[in-house]
């Protein structure tokens, strides 16, 4: 039997009970006019969370599926792109471009390092680039990038600006049209607070023009087919119908609550948690932090051991790191159906664990 643990992971996240109940309902047949109306309402709601009037393709797949669809749909062997690589998910852009033979250069950042905008502008203006690929925030470290300023630079230079916004939309401010983002990617299991299984590619007119110039290289990831079918409220291949039903309800909830308030809730959770752990032997890693999560740098303790103790003794899941960071950092999500009592439970557990490891130092909430 799998024991249900309290989730503080950056996907999956805790899901509201009424959204879970929606997922338990009998699925409708999706090739109907009723389902087409629901799809159109979903697209309208997605436009609100992306803050765009552009086109949006709904994919059944993970965020990586949307990333790959973007590499296939907006680039070919005539392109040379700059990839901001600040960690695991920046590296994923590199891996996708390498696999599909897209010429690229990496702008490598140290763990938790922000982008030097002057250096970025100089690099882009002196190189033969056609696009910039970036993560809105690097989920492996929590580093949030200044997309508004980067969008201004790419627009001045006439470059396509492609953003993996999977872990930032609904948690941090994100204004696709205002910030001149050409392509933005989202998936269901982060601040949308749904099960994994859906991903979305939003694109403006510049991106659509570029997409029409690209010869399709994939059947399933041909975004033109999605946009064409969505005109009649349908998807070209069998979608994750149950999650779409949950998405429809979640978008109604966000619209009723307002996107501004949803972001404010994430900020309050992040601020409360960070303030509450200041007495512990931790550091907060990124120089610019996302509301979606907090990356804890362990000054004296072993981060992986803390993750294990939270799992084994407190039934709490936080996100470990891999590679060279495995024993140095862990990540705490502020996304999904969380409240102050949940945060206090985690904070108390961390107090007890670090008190044991540090020799019984007092910790106050």
Walk me through the structure:
By secondary structure, the chain is of the alpha/beta class. It folds into two domains: 6-12 and 259-358, Aspartate Aminotransferase, domain 1 (Alpha-Beta Complex); 17-257, 3-Layer(aba) Sandwich (Aspartate Aminotransferase, domain 2). Helix content is 42%, strand content 18%. It is built from twelve helices and 14 strands. The strands form three sheets. The chain has a seven-stranded mixed β-sheet with strand order 2-10-9-8-5-3-4, with helices on both faces. A five-stranded mixed β-sheet has the order 1-13-14-12-11. A two-stranded antiparallel ribbon has the order 6-7. The longest helix is centred in the C-terminal third of the chain and has 19 residues, at 340-358. The two termini are 34 Å apart.
Question: What does this entry show, briefly?
Answer:
This protein has two domains: 6-12 and 259-358, Aspartate Aminotransferase, domain 1; 17-257, Type I PLP-dependent aspartate aminotransferase-like (Major domain) (Aspartate Aminotransferase, domain 2). Helix content is 42%, strand content 18%. The protein contains twelve helices and 14 strands.
Enumerate how many helices there are, as a single number. 12
CATH superfamily of the largest domain: Type I PLP-dependent aspartate aminotransferase-like (Major domain)
Describe the oligomeric state of these chains in a short phrase: single chain
Instruction: Give the beta-strand count.
Output: 14
Strand content: 15-25%
Helix % is 40-55%
Question: How many domain units?
Answer: 2
Helix/strand order, N-terminal first: EHHEHEHEHEEEHEEEHHHHEEHEEH
The whole-angstrom Rg is 21 Å
CATH topology of the largest domain: Aspartate Aminotransferase, domain 2
Q: Major beta sheet, specifics?
A: 7 strands, mixed
CATH class group of the largest domain: Alpha Beta
